[in-house]
């Protein structure tokens, strides 16, 4: 839907063009009018317009001055000047601008319609134009570092399907690695970064550390670096070039190991940061990077001694220590925090299918565990239950669903006879919560649409009150979104609903012989009987008077 503003100090011209543009259903225009340049500026302060048709000679603020104001506020707006034969000296300077055209007032309404249709076509063409794609590509290049960082984080947090980890994505994002070969993972942490007082200061330090590491590693290895939400530094590493055989990997590992002490020393001396590193000692396929990264994070947190300046290059000993106390089932039942965050995010955003798939993946890890006393399995159940409980508490749903789900079971895995039954219960909780989401979304949408419909019926006499911009302001929505929501809920375009409501009210009023046609026109939002008659005849194929006569002759 495109918003159009008609500006002319001659009311009969502004009203006429306004009425004509409202009658172009194929374009779905949202049309407004103003009787002066000053009034038009007030409209521009409220919302964006796509097309403005304006007289060029008006008192107070003329068309050329209005053009300057439009360019300041909404530079993408198209302007069509309505001119007379003797005004070409005025129009000459205006048409030097892009997105400006003109037509003669004497050319008639058909020409106005053609010009607006042509302008809409230009807008749609520009939206698809290569120039915009070029701009988007330039912006993408500027954002590439941020996109690379986000992509790596999603891989390591298991938020991407393995099919999304491919060479096409790597090339598009400028990642200098090969998607069909494994990687080494290295994790770094500044033990003194927390002493920095501001986020920007911490970011600058991390950037300096990355540049120092790049200086020591880029000559012999390919890598991509990233920073996670805990401000840990992450490197994904491969041998440089095509040297991806076993010997190449061994040389790469040796090279990185040999340079980490230099990186630590350089960071300590030049930026005042004490770094700890955990370097994986074996490669991992891309599909296993999330699990391996989780292990490396645990090793970094494990710390030996005080942990300051730790350099851990062989993880086997520490992994053995970690597993001794956790039993043989640890890897089967362990759930990473990233997966819990993913569940919470999917529930919050109403992503039902994605949530179900994630939940089933969690349940799969417990299918061979028989004991209900298995501690890692209990941890997994409690963690998922806490996601549900937090959501219900945040949205005040506890009392609503307590009896439906048997709330006492949510944080008591012992209430279930097996882990299979426990996860069937969690699946029922999921289904109830998503059903409530859908019902609440429908309720809110219906309440908003009912409010809009009532406002339209109560204010038909005032066109400003039933404009799309005004209606959107009532419910604090973007006008375009309100238009789409109204169509989604009612199956009818908002403009068609307003038109149908006007027609119904007009017919009802015309059935009362004591109400003059001028009064009917005013009550349904048409200032004059002439404008009302033109509208009524267009819809019903008869004038208001003919309609009234037909009613009384029945």
Written description of the protein model:
It is built from 23 helices and ten strands. The chain has 554 residues and is α/β, with parallel strands linked by helices. The strands form two sheets. It has a five-stranded parallel β-sheet, sandwiched between helices. A five-stranded mixed β-sheet has the order 7-8-6-9-10, with helices on both faces. Helix 8 (199-217) crosses helix 9. It comes from Paenibacillus qinlingensis. The modification 4-aspartylphosphate is found at residue 55.
Using only C-alpha atoms, the radius of gyration works out to 34 Å
Distance between the termini: 41 Å
Count of helical stretches: 23
Structural class, judged by helices and strands? alpha/beta
Query: Tell me, what's the shape?
Result: flat
Q: Assess the beta-strand content as a share of residues.
A: 5-15%
Largest sheet: 5 strands, parallel
Q: How would you write the strand order of the largest sheet?
A: 2-1-3-4-5
Q: Can you count the beta strands? A: 10
Helix content: 55-70%
Provide the low-confidence segments as ranges.
325-333
Average of pLDDT: 86
Pfam families: HTH_18, Response_reg
Modified residues (4-aspartylphosphate): 55
Keywords: DNA-binding, Phosphoprotein, Transcription, Transcription regulation
Domain Response regulatory: 3-120
């Amino acid at each position: 839907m495109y918003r159009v503003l008609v500006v002319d100090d001659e009311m009969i011209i502004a009203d006429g063009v306004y009425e004509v543009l409202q009658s172009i259903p194929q374009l779905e225009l949202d049309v407004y009018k103003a009787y002066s340049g000053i009034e038009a500026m007030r409209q521009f302060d409220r919302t964006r317009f796509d097309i403005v048709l304006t007289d060029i000679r008006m008192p107070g603020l003329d068309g050329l001055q209005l053009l300057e104001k439009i360019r300041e506020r909404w530079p993408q707006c198209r302007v069509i000047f309505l001119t007379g034969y003797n005004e070409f000296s005025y129009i000459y300077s205006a048409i030097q601008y892009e997105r400006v055209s003109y037509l003669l007032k004497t050319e008639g309404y058909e020409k106005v319609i053609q010009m607006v249709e042509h302008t809409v076509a230009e807008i749609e063409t520009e939206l698809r134009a290569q120039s915009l794609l070029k701009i988007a590509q330039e912006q993408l290049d500027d954002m590439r570092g941020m996109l690379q960082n986000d992509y790596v984080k999603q891989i390591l947090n298991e938020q991407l399907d393995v099919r999304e980890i491919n060479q096409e994505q790597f090339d598009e994002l400028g990642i200098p690695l090969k998607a069909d070969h494994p990687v080494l993972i290295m994790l770094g942490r500044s033990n003194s970064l927390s002493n920095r007082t501001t986020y920007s200061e911490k970011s600058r330090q991390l950037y300096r550390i990355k540049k120092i590491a790049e200086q020591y590693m880029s000559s012999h290895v390919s890598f991509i670096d990233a920073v996670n939400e805990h401000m840990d530094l992450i490197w994904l590493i491969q041998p440089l070039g095509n040297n991806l055989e076993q010997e190449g990997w061994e040389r790469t590992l040796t090279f990185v190991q040999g340079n980490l002490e230099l990186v630590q020393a350089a960071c300590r001396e030049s930026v005042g940061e004490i770094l700890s590193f955990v370097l994986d000692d074996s490669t991992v396929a891309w599909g296993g990077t999330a699990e391996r990264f989780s292990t490396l994070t645990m090793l970094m947190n494990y710390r030996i001694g005080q942990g300051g300046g730790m350099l851990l290059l062989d993880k086997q000993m520490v992994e053995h220590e970690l597993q001794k106390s956790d039993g043989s089932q640890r890897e089967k039942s362990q759930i990473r925090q990233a997966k819990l965050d993913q569940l919470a995010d999917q529930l919050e955003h109403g992503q039902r299918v994605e949530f179900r798939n994630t939940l089933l993946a969690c349940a799969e890890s417990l299918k061979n565990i028989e004991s209900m006393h298995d501690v890692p399995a209990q941890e997994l159940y409690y963690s998922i239950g806490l996601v549900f409980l937090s959501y219900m508490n945040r949205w005040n749903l506890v009392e609503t669903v307590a009896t439906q789900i048997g709330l006492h079971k949510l944080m008591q895995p012992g209430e279930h006879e097996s882990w299979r039954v426990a996860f069937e219960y969690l699946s029922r909780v999921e289904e109830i919560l998503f059903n409530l989401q859908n019902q609440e979304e429908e309720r809110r949408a219906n309440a908003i649409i009912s409010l809009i419909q009532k406002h339209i019926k109560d204010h038909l006499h005032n066109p400003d009150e039933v404009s799309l911009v005004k209606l959107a302001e009532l419910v604090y929505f973007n006008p375009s979104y309100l238009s789409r929501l109204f169509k989604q809920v009612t199956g009818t375009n908002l403009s068609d609903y307003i038109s149908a409501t006007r027609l119904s009210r007009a017919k009802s009023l015309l059935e009362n012989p004591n109400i003059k046609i001028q009064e009917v026109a005013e009550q349904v939002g048409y200032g004059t009987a002439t404008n009302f008659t033109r509208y009524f005849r267009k819809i019903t194929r008869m004038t208001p008077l003919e309609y009234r006569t037909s009613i009384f002759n029945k």
